Amino acid sequence: MTKNTLHGRVALVTGGSRGIGAAIARALAAAGAAVAINYRERVSDADGLVKAIVDAGGRAMAIPADVSDASAVAGMAAAVNAQLGPIDILINNAGVAITRGIDDLTEADFDQTIAVNLKSVFLCTQAVLPTMRAAKWGRIVNISSGAARGAGSIGPHYNASKAGIEGLTRGYAARLVKEGVTVNAVAPSLIETDMMHGQESLVSRIPLGRFGAADEVAGAVMLLIDNAYMTGQTVAMSGGMAFN
Ligand code: NAP
Question: Where are the domains of the chain?
Fold first, then answer.
C-alpha cells in the first residue's frame, strides 16, 4: 500500500503494543492512517510505538483497555472517536495463548481464552459499527490462527476461540456487505513474537524452515484493507504447513 492511501482514516488495533499488533499498527501508520494502539498492561511498549509514529509525522494514541470487558471497550471506542476521529478500521488482534494439555485444561483457562480471544471481537465490532455504518465505509480484520482449522500447539480452548472468530467474521461480513463494511480474517501459524517464546522446536513443522515475521502478517492485513470486493474470507499464512 502506498504512503497516503489511508490518509484521513482512523484505525484501532487491539493488542497493538507488541508482536503482530505492533507490526500492523506500524503498517497502518505508514499508509497514512491515524492509529489507536490498545494494550492491556505494557504501557511503555505502547507509548514507545506512539512516539515512533508521531516522530515520523503520523498521528497515534495509546489506549489501555481489557478488550474482554464491555464497559472498557465502550470507553476505548469513545476515547478514540474523541481524540483521533470516527473509527474506520478495526483490527481485532489482542489474544492470549494459555498452553494446556487436555487433562490440565481448567474451566478458568477456557473462560479466559474465550473472553479475551473471542468475546472481545464481538465487543469491539459492536463498538465501532455505528461510525462505520454512518460513513458507509469500514474495514474489520480479525486475527485468527491456523489453530481454527488445524491441530495447533496451544490447546482445544484456543482452537475453539479461533474457530469462533472465523464464524463471527462470516456472520458480520454477510450482514454488512451492503453497507460498505468488509470483514475478513488472517490466520497465521507460528509467527516469531513473545507468544512463541519457548516453542522454538516447532520450527521443524514448517516447510519453509523458519517462523513467520509479524511484518508478513501485517502485509496480509493491508491487502485486505485495500480490497473492497473481498469479504468474509480467511487468509491463511503458514509457511506451507496448511492450505485453506
Ligand atoms: P503477543 O506478542 O503475546 O501480544 C499480545 C498482545 O495482546 C499484546 O499487545 C497484549 O497487550 C494484548 N492483550 C492480551 N490480552 C489483552 C486484553 N485482555 N486486552 C487488551 N489487550 C490484550 O501476541 P502475538 O503473537 O503478537 O499475537 C497476536 C494475535 O495473533 C493473537 O490473537 C494471537 O492469538 C494471534 N496469533 C499468533 C500467532 C503466533 O505464532 N505468534 C499465530 C497465530 C495467531 P500487553 O502488551 O499490554 O500485554
Answer: 10-237
Q: Is 90 exceeded by the pLDDT of residue 44?
A: yes
- Identity of residue 92: N
Query: Which range among 7-21, 75-89, 185-199, 220-234 shows the weakest confidence by mean pLDDT?
Result: 185-199
CB 13 within 8 A of CB 39: no
> What separation in Å is there between the alpha carbon of 72 and the centre of ligand 1?
18
The answer as to CATH 3.40.50.300 being correct for domain 10-237 is: no
User: What is the three-class DSSP state of 219?
Assistant: helix
Element (H, E) at 173: helix 156-176
Q: Identify the residues whose C-beta falls under 6 Å from ligand 1.
A: 14-15, 17-21, 38-42, 45, 66-68, 93-97, 116, 143, 145, 188-191, 193-196
Assess whether 158 carries a catalytic annotation.
Answer: yes
Cβ-based burial of 122 (10 A; exposed 0-12, middle 13-18, buried ≥19): middle
Q: Are 87 and 11 in contact (CB under 8 A)?
A: yes
